[in-house]
Amino acid sequence: MSPSAVPTATTHNQFENDLNLSLLGLGVEYPPFLVGPEALETLANRFYPPSPALKKVLSINRYTGIETRSAIGDVDHPLVNQPNAPSIKELNGLFREEGVRLSVNACEKAMREWGGSVDEITHVVSTTCTNSANPGFDHFVVKQLGINSSVEKILLHGIGCSGGMAAMRTAAHLALGSSYRGKPARILIVACEISSVLVRSELDSINEEQKTRVGVCLFSDCASAAILSNGVGEEHGSRPVYELLGWKHQIIDDTEEDLGFDVDPLGWKVILTQRVPTLASAAVSPCFQNLVQSIPELQNDTQPPTASDFDWALHPGGSLIITGVEQAMKLTPEHLRASYEIYMQYGNSSSATIISVLNKLRESEGKEHVVACAFGPGIALEMMVLRRQTEASPPMNGLEINGANDVSSQNGTAPHDGEMNGNGISHTNGDVDAKDMGSTIINGSSTVNDVGASNCDQSSSSGLPVEGLD
Fold first, then answer.
1. Is residue 196 a contact partner of residue 72, using CB atoms and an 8 Å limit?
2. In whole angstroms, what is the distance from residue 414 CA to residue 309 CA?
3. How many whole angstroms separate alpha carbon 129 and alpha carbon 376?
């Protein structure tokens, strides 16, 4: 790439053709358990007295559209079965062990697909919102991978669910800077979240404050990784998984109090107000239009492309987020099939989810161009347009596929090996094909939207304030 490909002061809103930025490998590592909605009810009944707020949360928990959530332990994990919720010190110790392990495994998968060596890694861009220790978890990931200790590291914090995309955007800018200098960039992107062990802290707040905190029904555990290259000096002949064409970061004004993840003596507490689905859905269209206009490859002599001309890798923040964007952008469930599948089988793994959605999306044939989109505290909107290979590709090793991996549940827990069923997701009520995912949530279970609507109403019969409705 020539220096002219780097946006200048006079063309800062435009991308040039052939940025030569590619994702050469993806890796996703889920922990060994899937927990069903029953797990939350089990823990709530073990440690908390019945109350109107708890009853309401448990009711919502049955209708989130999530079949199972990935977790580092089952409902009997010692850390969530103590007399009191775990402390930050205990949570940090667990993350140092489990989070680093998941991250290293995800990185190794991405690097195997790329085919390069740890000695070629020039930068590491990491993110998490479920750990804030110093040094950051990325220090230990780099150490265990055997990457040179002088590698340039950046750890992003305070960006929540948009972290995976913010890490890709940051990596892209670093790669363009290296291209300008004629230097190679092989950037390891890592996102890791351990949310499941925050369940007791959230249940404490529900019990003490009598607020309907829905975040406890949504979040899960995962690590994901990607290798981004600027192509300079590439010797492996690696076939890109996705090529980056352009991106956009935007803050929705006056929304700081609507979406967040606050520090608490017992970890972190989700802030997610009833306005988030509407705010997020309304912001997508203008951001999409602006981004498309900035990418020359997407311009032609007729009319500009519409949202339905793309496949969408939307961060599955919650059922109302997915359906809201689907309706606002006039999409179909098929456009969002990967987001629905990941949401239903694994839940919302915050920053680590978007790479998992991109990884799932490439398993099926689809449109050449993909829009990736995520929301984070701020409210921040991250959007990126990517181009993927249109030819049939061999099986990928980012997240191994096993058609025999059936998800069953006993007391809300099921061990698994981090693999997905290539034919769809196994459910307690029968298999659902990918093409039917959206209708299962939207048309097949209006209770999801009904629950959302009833709990968005502050004047509902319970009179309980809502925290974390998504």
1. yes
2. 38
3. 11
Q: What is the CA radius of gyration of the chain?
A: 21
Give the global pTM: 0.83
The residues near 307 (Cβ < 8 Å, ≥ 6 apart) are 285, 288, 329, 330, 331, 335, 371
Amino acid 176 reads L
Tokens, residue 436: 């039917």
> What amino acid is encoded at 216 in this protein?
V
- Residues in the chain where the model's pLDDT stays below 50: 1-11, 392-470
* SS3 label, residue 129: coil
Burial of 89 (0-12, 13-18, 19+ CB in 10 A): exposed
Q: Give the containing element (helix H, strand E) for 46.
A: helix 37-47
Q: Among candidates 272, 252, 200, 327, which has minimal Cα distance to 455?
A: 272
b vs e for 270-279, b when ≥16 Cβ sit within 10 Å of the residue's Cβ? bbbbbebbeb
Tell me the C-alpha distance between 37 and 366, whole Å.
32
Query: Biggest alpha carbon distance in the chain?
Result: 67
Q: For the chain, give the number of residues.
A: 470
Distance (Å, rounded) from C-alpha 121 to C-alpha 147? 7
d(Cα 227, Cα 25) in Å, to the nearest integer? 5
Its sign, for the CA torsion 332, 334, 337, 340, is positive
374 contact partners, CB below 8 Å, separation of at least 6: 161, 162, 164, 165, 314, 315, 317, 353, 354, 381, 382
b/e code 417-431 from CB counts within 10 Å (16+ = b): ebebbeebbbeeeee
- Under 8 Å between Cβ of 183 and 177: no
Specify the pLDDT at position 184: 96
212 pairs with which residues across the strands? 466
Structure tokens at 435: 């093409």
Here the tokens at position 406 are 């059936």
- Catalytic residue at 287? no
439 contacts 326 by C-beta, under 8 angstroms: no
- Among the listed residues 161, 217, 222, 373, the single catalytic one is 161
- Chain center to CA of 287: 19
- Residues 325 and 165: their CA atoms lie apart, in Å, by 17
What is the reported pLDDT for 275?
Answer: 84
3-state helix vs strand vs coil in the chain, percent to 5? 40, 20, 40
pLDDT at 464: 40
What pLDDT, on a 0 to 100 scale, did the predictor assign at position 391? 56
What residues have CB less than 8 Å from 267, skipping those under 6 apart? 85, 86, 88, 91, 197, 198, 201
Pairing of the two strands 466-467 and 212-213: parallel
